[in-house]
Amino acid sequence: MGVTLNPEVWRIDNLELTVRLILAIVLGGLVGLERELGGHSAGFRTHILVCLGSAAIMLLSMYGFSEYAAEPNVRIDPARLAAQVISGIGFLGAGTILRTGLTISGLTTAASLWVVAAVGLSVGAGFYYGASISAFLVVISLFFLNKVEKIFSRAKKDRSITFILQRRINSLQQIVTSMNESGIKIYKITIENEEAADPSVEPLIIRMNVKLKKTKAFDEALIKLAGIEGVLRLETAGDAL
C-alpha cells in the first residue's frame, strides 16, 4: 500500500510567512536590546539580523522547494539548511570574543548570538511557543541573572598589578600593608630587575596576582598604592564581566 504525499504541506501563504519574519525581528531584538544597553560588540541590529536570517533560511528549507515536492525522486529535508546555520553561526560568535591580558570578554554575547539563531530557526519552522519562551528566558537570564552573577563573583575576581618601584626606597612593605587594609589578597609575587637609563633610580618591577574581597573599593586602593613613596608607576589588568 503506497503512501499518499500531500504537496500542500510544503507550501505557506504570504501572510504566514510575513508573520514569522516579523516575529523573528521582535524576539531577536529583545535579546539584542540587552546587549546594546550593555555596550557589547554585537548589539541590537546584529541580533535582529541573525534571528531574521535564521528564520528566512528555515522558511527556505521548508517551503522554498515546494514546487518540487510532488516529484517522485525528490526528498525534502527541512533540517538540512537549519543544521548549517547552527554550525555556521560559530564564526560570527567567535568574532565577538576578545582577550586582552588576563581579560576575556564577549563569551556571553557569542552565546546569545547562537541562541538567537536557534530562536530564528524555531520561528521559521512555526514553533512559536518554543521560540517565544526561549527568547523570554534568554532576556531574563541576561538582565537578571547577570546581577546575581556579579554578586557571587565579587569574591572571585582576579587581578594582576604591576609596580615599577625605585630600588633604594623600601616600598614593598608599605604596598603589602596597604593592600591588606583594602581587602586585596596577594597569592603570587614576581620580582624582575630592569636596567635604568638613570642609575640613581634603578627601577624594580614587581608583578602581583591578587584576589579582591572588596571590588567597589579597588579604584580607591589603586590611588592609595600609587601615592606610596617610591612607586613610579603601576598597571593593572583583570577579568571582565
UniProtKB/TrEMBL annotation:
<feature type="transmembrane region" description="Helical">
    <location>
        <begin position="17"/>
        <end position="34"/>
    </location>
</feature>
<dbReference type="GO" id="GO:0005886">
    <property type="term" value="C:plasma membrane"/>
</dbReference>
<dbReference type="InterPro" id="IPR049177">
    <property type="entry name" value="MgtC_SapB_SrpB_YhiD_N"/>
</dbReference>
<protein>
    <submittedName>
        <fullName>MgtC/SapB transporter</fullName>
    </submittedName>
</protein>
<dbReference type="InterPro" id="IPR003416">
    <property type="entry name" value="MgtC/SapB/SrpB/YhiD_fam"/>
</dbReference>
<feature type="domain" description="MgtC/SapB/SrpB/YhiD N-terminal">
    <location>
        <begin position="21"/>
        <end position="150"/>
    </location>
</feature>
<comment type="similarity">
    <text>Belongs to the MgtC/SapB family.</text>
</comment>
<dbReference type="Pfam" id="PF02308">
    <property type="entry name" value="MgtC"/>
</dbReference>
<feature type="transmembrane region" description="Helical">
    <location>
        <begin position="46"/>
        <end position="66"/>
    </location>
</feature>
<keyword id="KW-0472">Membrane</keyword>
<feature type="transmembrane region" description="Helical">
    <location>
        <begin position="127"/>
        <end position="146"/>
    </location>
</feature>
<keyword id="KW-0812">Transmembrane</keyword>
<keyword id="KW-1133">Transmembrane helix</keyword>
<keyword id="KW-1003">Cell membrane</keyword>
